[in-house]
Design brief:
349 residues, Alpha-Beta Plaits, binds S-adenosylmethionine, methyltransferase, EC 2.1.1.186
């Protein structure tokens, strides 16, 4: 039996739980979840399989709603405030890790814990270094997950199947000149879906892009900043400064009816607030018709059963892409800057 902790956005615990349950079952692993609303994490207890079996059979980047995860080593309760470190050091005797991370849930309670971790981290690291717990060649990272200053979980995640970001969260600075906060969604999507080595060719000047549902221009801003020429499709008004760059053509058209005149569009991005089935079908149409090379789009999920609905939409896309005779790559993630929506990346391969 092994226990895993999966981090997610607060309020998405049921989606995170349903998703891991589904993937584990598909991989022949059986277990059950404990998920409480707004806790910012889910516990998954595996009842068969060796320790860390889940890490071997399920890839974190295939999970939409999980940001980060670890497998439990030990749970420490009622830590003595005068010496919290000794029990941790004792529990880790003989273990080696490539790195250590001090974690907490992405909730208000978690934020309160984060100020405590700042005081705790230096003496803890000293003690663990003394015991040589950190070794460059080790294959897993140690997670010290704090519920509060007296209740701690120790766990590990494998270096080759985890997020390199603290808590699985990419923090980005809002660019002061961007027209809307949603600019960060597209910026985060570029970081998440596009390998840094591909940025010079895929996110560079001279490429053409189409932004469906562009107003006021937060997503267009990201494309313009990278030197692209953008057709911004929306009945609403676009930000004036953005229009003055000369890189944006604003077309007051229906994004579901718009068709590019030339076959020179690299990026299609779409943030229209519409039914996920409609947006998904539109994105597939663009890829199957070869109207663009790559697409990044949001699927809005205001319904209760988000995971189940998303699974149906994905199936609908897979069928349509198969019928369209296209070999493709589809990735989906509930990004940090997403709220009741997920971000998708679709391209031909
Ligand atoms: C969430 S906002 C987009 C925000 C934008 N991505 C940004 O970063 O500033 C959704 C936009 O989609 C537009 N929209 C909704 N349905 C549309 C349609 N059928 N055709 C074109 N635009 C549409 C709305 O007018 C609205 O401006």
């Amino acid at each position: 039996m092994s226990r895993y902790i999966l981090y997610c956005r607060a309020g998405f615990e049921k989606d995170c739980a349903n998703e891991i349950q589904h993937h584990a079952t598909e991989a022949g692993l059986f277990g059950f979840c404990r998920a409480k609303d707004n806790f910012g994490y889910v516990e998954f207890e595996l009842t068969n399989g060796e320790d860390s079996a889940l890490f071997k059979k399920v890839k974190l980047d295939k999970l939409v709603f999980t940001r980060q995860w670890f497998c439990l080593i030990e749970e420490l309760f009622d830590l003595d405030p005068s010496d919290r470190i000794s029990p941790i050091v004792k529990a880790l005797a003989g273990h080696e890790y490539a790195d250590i991370t001090l974690d907490y849930a992405d909730t208000n309670e978690g934020k309160a814990v984060s100020s405590f971790t700042k005081k705790f981290v230096v003496p803890l690291q000293k003690a663990l270094n003394k015991q040589k717990v950190v070794q460059n060649k080790a294959e897993a990272v140690l997670h010290i997950f704090l519920f509060n200053s007296q209740h701690i979980l120790l766990g590990f995640s494998p270096c080759n199947n985890r997020s390199d970001l603290h808590l699985g969260i990419r923090r980005l600075k809002f660019p002061a000149s961007a027209p809307s906060r949603s600019t960060l969604k597209l910026e985060e999507a570029f970081h998440y879906f596009i390998a840094k080595s591909d940025w010079p060719t895929k996110l560079s000047g001279g490429l053409n892009a189409v932004d469906l549902g562009a107003a006021p221009g937060g997503w267009t801003y990201q494309l313009v900043q990278r030197g692209m020429m953008v057709s911004a499709i929306d009945n609403g008004p676009m930000n004036k400064d953005l229009m003055e760059t000369g890189q944006v053509k604003h077309l007051r058209e229906d994004g579901f009816k718009y068709e590019p005149k030339k076959r020179n569009v690299h990026w299609l991005v779409c943030d229209m607030v519409e039914k996920p089935t409609r947006v998904a079908a539109l994105m597939v149409k663009w890829i199957v018709n070869d109207w663009c090379k790559e697409a990044i789009f949001n699927l809005k999920l205001p319904m209760k059963q988000r995971y189940q609905h998303l699974a149906q939409v994905v199936e609908q896309m897979e069928v349509a892409l198969y019928e369209g005779g296209v070999r493709y790559k589809l990735q989906i993630k509930h990004l940090y800057h997403d709220r009741e929506e997920v971000t998708c990346y679709l391209t031909r391969i």
